[in-house]
Design a protein that fits this description.
This protein is of the alpha+beta class and 534 residues long. The protein has 13 helices and 33 strands. It has an eight-stranded antiparallel beta sheet. A seven-stranded mixed beta sheet has the order 2-3-1-4-5-11-6, with helices on both faces. Strand 30 and strand 31 (505-509) form a beta hairpin. The longest helix is centred in the middle third of the chain and has 25 residues, at 215-239. It is globular and about 80 Å long. The chain binds guanosine-5',3'-tetraphosphate (G4P). The site of guanosine-5',3'-tetraphosphate has 20 residues, from helix 2 and helix 3. Guanosine-5',3'-tetraphosphate is lined by residues 22, 24-30, 48-49, 52, 60, 93, 144-145, 147-148, 260-262.
C-alpha cells in the first residue's frame, strides 16, 4: 500500500491538465499542434496552408488527423514533456461551439487564454474566461500572431484588465511588433531571446540568448528596437504589477507571454514556464468530504457525453475526469447517482497519436468510458466506502431558443423520450412555458448548430420529425429568490416565464437591456445566469 501511495503521489504531481480558451481563428489549433511538436508527439507540423482546404467540413481535430495521418480525438490529448504528463482538453469552437465547450473547463486545472495580438480580446474568449474565473482556476495568456503587426503590448495589458477584470504580468516582452517579430525579452532571466530557424514553423526553433547590455544585441536589433526595448523594460519594472505566484494560482493575475504559434517563436519558452507554474490536480470539493487527489481511492466525475452519431449504434462515450487515486482497467467502482457497482472494462485514453485502451490512469487524467446508457453528466464514480458526491456541473447560459413540437402528434411519446435523452446528455436545455402548458417545449442551446444536431438525431434515432419555431430570446436567467411567484413580477412584454426540467423558475429575455430593466422594476429580485444540474 505505501508503494501505491507513493506511486500516486508521483504521478499526480507530474500531471498538468488544461484547456485552451480562445476566439475562433486566434490560432488554437496551430498552438496545440506546436505543443505536440515540442512534446515529441508529432515530428513535423504540416504547412498551415494545406489545412485550410476543408476547414469547415469537419472539426479541427479531424482535420489535423486527415492531414497528418495520425489519429487525434476531438476531446483530450495526452503527451509527455520534460517528465510532465500533459492533458490538453479541446474546447470546440467555430460551428462546434456548444455547452460542451464550457463543460470541458470544469475538467481543467488551468486554462491558457489565447489572444490574437492584432484583435485583442474577442467575444468567445470573454465567455470562456468568465467560466474559468468562476472556477477560480489559474489563467495564462498567450498573445499569438506576433509575427504580424499587433496592438501595442501595453494596450493589450490595459484591455485585459478593462474587459476581463484581471491584472496581467508579462513574463516576456516582444521585440518588433510591426510585423517584424525578432524575439522576446525574458523578464525572469533578464535576457534577450532572438529566434532563429524553425523552417516556417515546421520544426523547433532555436534562439540566440544574451544580456540586454551585450553590444551584440544592440547591433543585431538596431538602435530603434534596442532603445525601445530598454524603455519598455524600465516602464514595466516601475509601473507594472509584482509577480505573485499566489495571485496566479487564485486566478487573480494572468502571466502573459508573447509569441507566434505559426512560426514557433516563443512556443517552447511558454510551454516550459507554463508547466512550472500551472497547478497539478488539487483537492476537489465534494458533498461528504473534500477529495485529495493523492488518496489511494479512485474517484472521478462525468463531464461530457458523446453520442454515437451512427444510428445503428446507440452507445455513447462518457468522459470521466479522474479526481483522485489510480484507475486500473476492469476495476469495479460505485456509481453514486445510480446507486450501484459498475465495472469499467473498456476504458479509452487519448494519446496524441491514437485512441488506446487504457490500462492505468491517475488523478488529472481523462478517460472515455463505454456507456450503454448508464451515465449522465455530473455522475460521480468512486472506489471504497466513503460516500462522496461531486458537486453538480453547472448549466451554462444558452443563447438560442426554439419552441419545438413533433410534426406528427402521434409520435409524442418518442419525441419526449428523445428530448429527455438529449437533455441528459447535456446537448440541449429543456424548458416549458408556464402559462401555455406543456404542449410546446422550449429548447435552449449554446451554439446554434445544436438545433441541427437535435433535428438530425430525433429523426434518425427516434423517427420523429420536428417542427421548430425559432424564438428571439438570447438569455435565460434563473430566479434565485425562494418562494417567489414569477407571475407577480413586473416583466417587459418581450420576456417569458419558463420552468427548467427540475421545475425551477427562470425567465427568457431578448437582450441585456430587458434583464436590467426587470431587475430595476422588481427590487430584491435576484437573477442568476448559471444554474446547476441538480
Ligand atoms: P483556431 O483553431 O483558433 O480557429 O485557429 P487556427 O489555428 O486554425 O488558426 C487560424 C488562422 O491563423 C490560420 O490561418 C493560421 O495559419 C493562422 N495562425 C495561427 N497562428 C498564427 C501565427 O502565429 N501567426 C500568423 N500570422 N498566423 C497564425 P488560415 O487563414 O486558416 O490559413 P492561412 O491562409 O493562414 O494558411
Amino acid at each position: 500500500m505505501p508503494d501505491l501511495k507513493a506511486e500516486i503521489k508521483k504521478e499526480v504531481s507530474r500531471r498538468k491538465t488544461f484547456a485552451i480558451i480562445s476566439h475562433p481563428d486566434a490560432g488554437k489549433t496551430t498552438l496545440t499542434e506546436k505543443l505536440l511538436l515540442y512534446g515529441g508527439a508529432i515530428r513535423m507540423a504540416g504547412s498551415v496552408k494545406s489545412r485550410k482546404a476543408n476547414k469547415f467540413a469537419v472539426s479541427d481535430w479531424m482535420e489535423i488527423e486527415k492531414q497528418r495521418g495520425i489519429s487525434v480525438t476531438s476531446s483530450v490529448m495526452q503527451f509527455e514533456y520534460n517528465n510532465y504528463c500533459i492533458n490538453i482538453l479541446d474546447t470546440p469552437g467555430h460551428q462546434d461551439f456548444s455547452e460542451d465547450t464550457y463543460r470541458t473547463l470544469v475538467a481543467a486545472d488551468s486554462a491558457v487564454m489565447l489572444i490574437d495580438g492584432a484583435k485583442g480580446i474577442e467575444a468567445q474568449t470573454i465567455k470562456l474566461f468568465h467560466v474559468c474565473k468562476l472556477r477560480g482556476i489559474p489563467i495564462f495568456t498567450f498573445v499569438n500572431k506576433m509575427d504580424r503587426a499587433s496592438k501595442d503590448p501595453f494596450e493589450l495589458m490595459e484591455e485585459i484588465e478593462r474587459v476581463l477584470g484581471i491584472r496581467s504580468y508579462p513574463m516576456n516582452w516582444p521585440i518588433g511588433i510591426d510585423g517584424d517579430f525578432k524575439g522576446v525579452y525574458n523578464r525572469k532571466l533578464k535576457q534577450i531571446e532572438l529566434f532563429t530557424g524553425g523552417e516556417h514553423g515546421q520544426t523547433q526553433v532555436s534562439s540566440q540568448v544574451g544580456k540586454v547590455d551585450d553590444p551584440v544585441f544592440a547591433d543585431l536589433l538596431g538602435s530603434h528596437y534596442h532603445d525601445k526595448l530598454c524603455e519598455d523594460i524600465e516602464l514595466l519594472d516601475m509601473a507594472g504589477d509584482e509577480f505573485d505566484k499566489k495571485k496566479v494560482r487564485n486566478g487573480e493575475l494572468t502571466p502573459m507571454f508573447f509569441g507566434s504559434a505559426m512560426t514557433n517563436f516563443g512556443v517552447q519558452p511558454f510551454l516550459e514556464e507554463f508547466l512550472e507554474l500551472a497547478p497539478s490536480p488539487g483537492v476537489v470539493e465534494a458533498i461528504g468530504g473534500d477529495v485529495d487527489p493523492e488518496s489511494d481511492k479512485f474517484s472521478g466525475f462525468i463531464f461530457k457525453i458523446q453520442a454515437n452519431m451512427n444510428p445503428t449504434h446507440r452507445d455513447r462515450l462518457a468522459f470521466l475526469r479522474i479526481c483522485s487515486g489510480k484507475f486500473t482497467k476492469g476495476m469495479s467502482v460505485k456509481h453514486v447517482n445510480a446507486g450501484k457497482e459498475v465495472r469499467l472494462s473498456q476504458p479509452q485514453q487519448f494519446m496524441a497519436q491514437e485512441r488506446t485502451i487504457v490500462e492505468e490512469a491517475y488523478a488529472g487524467d481523462i478517460i472515455g468510458l463505454f456507456d450503454p446508457g448508464i451515465f449522465n453528466i455530473g455522475d460521480t464514480l468512486f472506489e471504497g466506502n466513503d460516500n462522496i458526491k461531486f458537486k453538480g456541473i453547472p448549466i451554462f447560459p444558452a443563447e438560442f431558443f426554439s419552441r419545438i413540437t413533433p410534426a406528427d402528434t402521434m409520435k409524442r411519446k418518442q419525441f419526449i423520450k428523445g428530448i429527455n435523452q438529449l437533455s441528459e446528455e447535456g446537448a440541449i436545455q429543456v424548458f416549458k412555458q408556464i402559462d401555455i402548458g406543456i404542449e410546446a417545449l422550449i429548447v435552449g442551446v449554446v451554439g446554434a448548430l445544436q438545433f441541427e444536431v437535435l433535428e438530425y438525431r430525433l429523426k434518425n434515432e427516434y423517427g420523429v420529425q420536428l417542427r421548430v419555431q425559432n424564438l428571439p430570446f438570447r438569455h435565460a436567467r434563473w430566479i434565485k429568490n425562494e418562494g417567489l411567484d414569477p407571475r407577480k413580477l413586473n416583466l417587459p412584454s418581450t420576456a417569458i416565464i419558463v420552468e427548467d426540467k427540475l421545475g425551477r423558475n427562470s425567465i427568457l429575455f431578448e437582450n441585456e437591456w430587458s434583464i436590467r430593466m426587470t431587475e430595476e422594476r422588481n427590487k430584491g429580485l435576484e437573477l442568476i445566469d448559471i444554474a446547476t444540474q441538480d
